[in-house]
């Protein structure tokens, strides 16, 4: 008999929200560093004149930068060294797998943008994998807005808490 992994305590967390406000503008240097780190030499991220010639007020962020940085969270490092948003879901005897992200880019991020990011747990469901392993699939949504309240990016993230089997 399989024990339910999705407890009432976990279900109660659906709808939980956390809001982070960046302590400063995201900044032009972050655009350049991120573009270099992913090997993207698109001049929209580094060349003011080129960006203006292509309809922007100035340089813009590489699209996934705001979803991959934790700069906005301004959190201390945890024991693993990670300094970003986590839900701290306690699901014993599981390993966490990234199920993927779905991004919607509403408008370009500017260097002067000060991000406010609102994360919420949208859903949790329990499933059985093709190999018969129990798992809890957690779907979160993050909305990134600028200092004017304009929606920049929506990120839907899926994490899978997969059972390691019977506890010893």
Report what the structure shows.
This protein is of the alpha+beta class and 168 residues long. The protein has one domain (8-163): Hotdog Thioesterase (Thiol Ester Dehydrase, Chain A), CATH 3.10.129.10. It has helices at 8-11, 28-38, 48-53, 65-68; strands at 17-21, 94-105, 116-128, 134-145, 151-163. The chain starts with 7 loop residues before the first helix and ends in a 5-residue tail after the last strand. The mean pLDDT is 93.
Strand-residue fraction? 25-35%
Q: Return Rg in Å.
A: 19 Å
Distance, first to last CA: 16 Å
| Total number of distinct structural domains | 1
Identify the CATH architecture: Roll
Shape: elongated
- CATH homologous superfamily (4th level) name: Hotdog Thioesterase
Number of strands: 5
Query: Helix/strand-derived class?
Result: alpha+beta
Order of helices and strands: HEHHHEEEE
Number of helices: 4
> Major beta sheet, specifics?
5 strands, antiparallel
* Helical fraction: 10-25%
Low-confidence runs of at least 5 consecutive residues: none
List the helices and strands and how they pair.
Blueprint: H1 8-11, E1 17-21, H2 28-38, H3 48-53, H4 65-68, E2 94-105, E3 116-128, E4 134-145, E5 151-163
Antiparallel strand pairs: 1-3, 2-5, 3-4, 4-5
Keywords:
168 residues; alpha+beta; Thiol Ester Dehydrase, Chain A; five-stranded antiparallel β-sheet; 4 helices; 15% helix; elongated
């Amino acid at each position: 008999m399989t024990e339910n992994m999705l407890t009432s305590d976990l279900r109660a967390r659906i709808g939980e929200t956390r809001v982070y406000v960046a302590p400063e503008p995201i900044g032009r240097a972050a655009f350049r560093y991120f573009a270099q780190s992913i090997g993207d030499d698109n001049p929209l991220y580094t060349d003011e004149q080129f960006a203006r010639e292509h309809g922007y007020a100035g340089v813009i962020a590489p699209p996934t930068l705001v979803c991959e940085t934790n700069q906005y969270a301004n959190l201390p490092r945890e024991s693993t060294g990670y300094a970003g948003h986590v839900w701290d879901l306690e699901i014993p005897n599981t390993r966490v797998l990234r199920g993927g992200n779905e991004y919607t880019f509403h408008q370009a991020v500017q260097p002067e943008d000060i991000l406010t990011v609102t994360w919420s747990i949208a859903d949790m469901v329990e499933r059985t994998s093709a190999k018969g392993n129990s798992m809890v699939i957690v779907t979160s949504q993050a909305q990134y807005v600028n200092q004017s309240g304009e929606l920049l990016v929506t990120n839907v993230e899926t994490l899978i808490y997969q059972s390691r089997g019977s506890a010893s």
